[in-house]
Predict the 3D structure of the following.
Amino acid sequence: MSGFVRQQQDIEYSPVGAADGLEKGVLVDADSGADVALRRFTLVAGGSVPEHTNAVEHEQYVLDGEYVVGIDDTEHSVAPGDTVHIPAGTVHWYRNEGDREAAFLCAVPAGDDTIRLLG
C-alpha cells in the first residue's frame, strides 16, 4: 500500500460503548496498511472511562484539556504536552473533572486490542 494523507474533516468519530462521554476517531490502522494504530480520543467534561485492561501497550499524547488517568493504583493529572505509557495488561481508567473537553492521541500496535472491563 502506498502512503496517504487523511484530512481532519474525513475522520469519523464514534462513541466508545462502555465509557461515558468518550469518542474515538481512527486516524491510521492496519486497514490503512500501517503497523501501528493511531487514534484520537475526546472525553467530554465530566466524562469517564471505567477500569479496564488492554491486550497491547498504549502510548498517549495529551492534546487538549486536563484529566485524570489512573494506572494501577496511582492517579495522574495530565495536561497538554504530557505523555502517558500504559503497558499491556495494566489496569487503567480516565476521569475528566474539568469544565472543558479533553483530547489525546493514542498509538498501539496494529492488530488485536482486546479490552477487558473490570468491576
Summary: The longest strand covers residues 36-54. The mean pLDDT is 93.
